[in-house]
Amino acid sequence: MTGSSGLEQGYRRLLAWYPRAFRRDQADEILGVLMAGAGEGQRRPRLAEAADLLWSGLKMRLRGPALTGESRPWSDALALFSLVAPLFLLLADVLAVALPYGLHPVAQFRFVSAFGSHTEIGGLSLLRQPIFDVTVGLGVLLAILVLLGLRWMALAALGAAAVYWVAARQMVPWIPYPLQLLTAGGYLLEMAALIASPGPRRGRQLVNWRYGVVLLAAAAAVQLSTFWYGARSTPWFLGGAPPAPPVVWLVSSLVLAVAAVSLALAWKLSRYFLLLLAVMCYPYAMELAFTPSGSGSDLLGSPTPLHLAALFLPPVLFACGTVLAAVTPRRSRLLPS
Amino acid sequence: MQEATFLILTALATGSQHGYGIITEVSQISGGRVRLRAGTLYTALDRLRIDEMIAVDREEIVDNRLRRYYRLTPKGSQKLAAEAARLQANAAAALSRLDLAGGTT
User: Fold this and answer.
1) Does B101 reach chain A within 8 Å, measured CB to CB?
2) Which residue of A134, A184, B1, B30 is most buried, as measured by CB atoms within 10 A?
3) Mean pLDDT of the region A257-275
4) What's the rounded Cα separation, in Å, for the pair B65 and A29?
5) Residues of chain A contacting residue B66, judged by C-beta atoms under 8 Å apart
6) Which residues of A2-29 are buried (b: 16+ CB within 10 A; e: fewer)?
């Protein structure tokens, strides 16, 4: 291998850190500039050149495909998710407050008092704790920031919510309510989406009213199944019958879930986006799945590290994989054909 | 506007240039103070193209490699003129105040 071709290979390896579409369009051109600027007898890229190319490539990857003219379904789905997930979680939280007040007054009283009044708001707040205000406040702030397309500020708000949740977990030693599992799983993925995608500004270009309809149905399904879950958990209804047969909530929830999925398929919503939503709901679904067998209350009441790992590992792995896939170059495409 | 962006637009103000030409021009304009590296240059060029401040003028093949020439767009010219005016006004204000304070020369 001559010094010149060795140098060129070195530059090509560094250029692999750029997004594929950018490489396809401009790698040859940049290579020309790099080779023109190389010193006499130079055999490998200089350290400063390497650092500059690595840093620029990484910046361009983090900037995302929307800005590099590349269109990739995963990136678009993540961008959409980064916009929609906080809204979905907020919607689920708001429904958690609003739905009990739609019940018959007698049932409402029984239900609301059984649930510890409307402080039972879900999200990252913990049961019957006044700190839920902070949680919901952070949720509202996050939703506003993603709607405004402020990616890095949203990430900061998300970080604050996560720190707050960890701190709250230290204060109150029981496992979060199912809705909180949903939120925690959602926030993990939201973090990955904000880092690895072009961000909510791109999501805003892609979103339409159909996503809103599907999300509303999905949030209502989640909330109704939470009622069913509550009715199955004896602590909520000590000494009193539930305000409606739990099976009604379960059936309503299933109908809404089927409707949401059917509409998503009929309207051809991004399947990648739907997969992300499914992963976000994984901890929640798992919690519910354990309830009929009686293990759900174990999960709810006395979490072990194994429980927590089972609940959170898949979303964490998915989130890490997404970020890695977004920032790691593909080695197989490094070398010229 | 960052200094590198300003200098790149300035390098293109007199006519279209290819990548290495821009690096050379920027070095000359800044008196050797700013030496753009290829990664930084193409990140900036990509951004400027997306912002429609520059456009590809033409392409050539030289030594079996693609060479792309970039030119300022009308929007880029306007932005550069506005930025230059702003810097000029700031510089004038600074010099004027220095004069009032007794001068530095």
Assistant:
1) no
2) A184
3) 81
4) 7
5) 28-29, 32
6) eeeeebbbbbbbbbbbbbbebbebbbbb
Say how far residue A76 (Cα) sits from the centre of its chain: 14
Q: Quote the number of domains for chain B.
A: 1
Shortest Cα distance from B18 to chain A (angstroms)? Answer: 9
Average pLDDT over chain A, rounded to an integer: 72
> In CATH, what number is assigned to the domain containing residue B85?
1.10.10.10
- The residue range of the domain holding B46 is 3-104
Supply the pLDDT for residue A337: 32
Assessment of whether the complete model's pTM goes beyond 0.80: no
**Residue position matching structure tokens 């407050």:** A97
Q: Which helix (H) or strand (E) holds A178?
A: helix A178-196
Q: Would an 8 Å CB–CB cutoff place B40 in contact with chain A?
A: yes
Q: Give B65: exposed, middle or buried? Use CB within 10 Å, 0-12, 13-18, 19+.
A: middle
Which secondary-structure segment (H or E) carries A124? Answer: none
| Those residues with Cβ within 8 angstroms of residue B82's Cβ, 6 or more apart along the chain or in another chain | none
- A3 pLDDT tier (thresholds 50, 70, 90): low
Residues A318/A192, Cβ–Cβ less than 8 Å: yes
Contact between A49 and B37 using a beta-carbon 8 Å cutoff: yes
Tokens of A205: 């270009």
As given in the structure block, the two tokens for residue A260 are 């949401």
Q: Is A302 helix (H, G, I), strand (E, B) or coil?
A: coil
How far apart are alpha carbons A257 and A247 in whole angstroms?
A: 15
Contacts for A6-12 with beta carbons within 8 Å, 24 or more apart? A6/A43, A6/A44, A7/A35, A7/A38, A7/A42, A7/A43, A7/A44, A7/A45, A8/A35, A9/A335, A10/A44, A10/A45, A11/A35, A11/A45, A11/A53, A12/A334, A12/A335, A12/A336
CB A45 within 8 A of CB A53: yes
Structure tokens at B93: 């204000």
Residue A290 burial (C-beta neighbours within 10 Å; 0-12, 13-18, 19+): middle
Residues 64-93 of B with CB under 8 A from A: 65-68
The pLDDT confidence band at residue B70, using thresholds 50, 70 and 90, is very high
Q: Which of B38, B47, B63 sits opposite A37 (nearest CB)?
A: B38
Give the Cα-Cα-Cα angle A128, A131, A134 (nearest 5 degrees). 135
- Residue B89, pLDDT above cutoff 80: yes
